[in-house]
Amino acid sequence: MSQGRKHIEKNPSAEQTPGAAPGSAPASAPAPSEELDLQPPRGTRDFYPDEMRRRNWLFGLFRETAGRFGFEEVDAPMVEHASLFTRKAGEEIVHQLYHFVLHDRHLALRPEMTPSLARMVIARQGAMRFPIRWFTVTQNWRYERMTRGRRREHYQWNMDIWGEPSVEAEAELLSAMFTVLDALGLARGKVKVRLNSRALLEESLRTGVLAKRPEVFAPLCVVIDKLDKIGAEAVTELLCDPAGAVGLSAGEAESVLAMLAARSLDEAARFAAPDSAALADLRRLYALLEAYGIADQVPFDASVVRGLAYYTGVVFEAFDAAGSLRAIAGGGRYDRLAETLGGKPVPAVGFGFGDAVIGELLEDEGLWPALARDVQDVVYAFSSAEKPAAIAVATRLRAAGRRVELALGTAKLKRVLGDADKAGVERVWLIGEDERARGVVKVRDLAKKMEHEEPLKG
Ligand code: HAM
Predict the structure, then answer these.
(1) 205, 201, 253, 262: which is closest to 232 by C-alpha?
(2) Which of 131, 173, 279, 410 has the fewest beta carbons closer than 10 A?
């Protein structure tokens, strides 16, 4: 939990800030020694119009797709009680929390959306008509070690289904994810979703490692999740660390790692009981994915367990096929989260799809569309005497639903026309002394390169 403070520790006076001194009054102004830094804090972004257009385009696609699957958008505060996020399984996300104490309340910027959704479901659990299908597009905060596509704030599109225990929910969610990938122009094959089931691993370990200590399963998954990053040897060391949360014997660790090598359901079946419910679920899920036409895009991979403690069943992660980037999206089933937070049990499954990694992939593939300014008409008055007439024209066009830029001050016509052309403006409305005297406005159609006149009073 101390990492979220790193960014203020350079300045000793920051010890007076709420994050550093629980219960203290909030600092109202920077301390005199604190230099004004006009860069956004490291790992965060400004969105200038170019970037904002891309963001809106991407989020529009998220919203459009979620709507097509019958999901409704919800939102929650960006600041939550820190305790909503603090879990004890050793997850990175907990150590990356941006958190602070303000007026004796320990608060945190949300690092992810799922706990907030759980809180919202629990608050109205009795009145909910399950299953519910919710989606969100929110900014999340994690004090991360930065790599390509990994930032300290990122936006996430989440789709979650609450109240549906069958893998039909997983299949529907994966189909929604591929609908967006297709719409982004990432032709089949450029992104793969690796999928596994934590329940399968849990079942297999129930008679051995987990027989006496079922509670070590979540920390065990958190450690296994590091396999790609730190390798088998380091993972074994963590699993066997007597002071760690898992504490396996060397033989147990070896058998766990052997299970993770399975790359097909038939290979996985060798470790599973003949009547394994988790394996039956996976077979059913793949049959459904076949019906959606995406089964071949979703390879089974027993090493995928995800780094968040709350997952209980199917888990999946989307990667670019070349494997050059971090995960594009990740999700899974988390049937016990509501209970863990004090609610009644309710099954749930969902995914989070970030904006940053997909942005890098679209850049690499040259797939960002050209997005111009969205102005349809420009209205130009040659002098201040024609301004009232220009205002009347702009007002009329705006009332008719057109997107209109009114040239301000003493803007030069040449520049206004040049900018309009670049922005793909359809028409420029010109009013000079002569037009005003005759009660008309000159309309220049930039695409057709034609001009005509219309009455000023329309
Ligand atoms: P997550 O795997 O932590 O899952 O994040 C989901 C996606 O968000 C990642 O695959 C990645 O694209 C993006 N992401 C996460 N952290 C960063 C970061 N620091 N910088 C850039 N992008 C990032 C969750 O958050 C779960 N709550 C998802 C979920 C929803 N599971 C069930 N429902």
Answers:
(1) 253
(2) 410
